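Ticket #4471: structure output looks truncated?

Reporter: J.K.
Steps to reproduce: submitted the chain below (51 residues) through the standard prediction queue, then opened the result file.
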Amino acid sequence: MLTGAQSQTELSDALAALALGPLPADLMARLDGCGLTDDALLNPARWPSLS
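Returned output as attached by the reporter:
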């Protein structure tokens, strides 16, 4: 699922990245180690309002 594209350029860039295939397993493991677990950060419904 792709969410958050704000322009045609962002969508095109995301689709080009998708066409490159998955990231290497070692990189995915390193990124997974950076995982966020705080629901206040992960759930946009809990983010503070900008107004």
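Triage note (M.O.): checked the attachment and the full token line is present. The chain has three helices and no strands.
Status: closed, working as intended.
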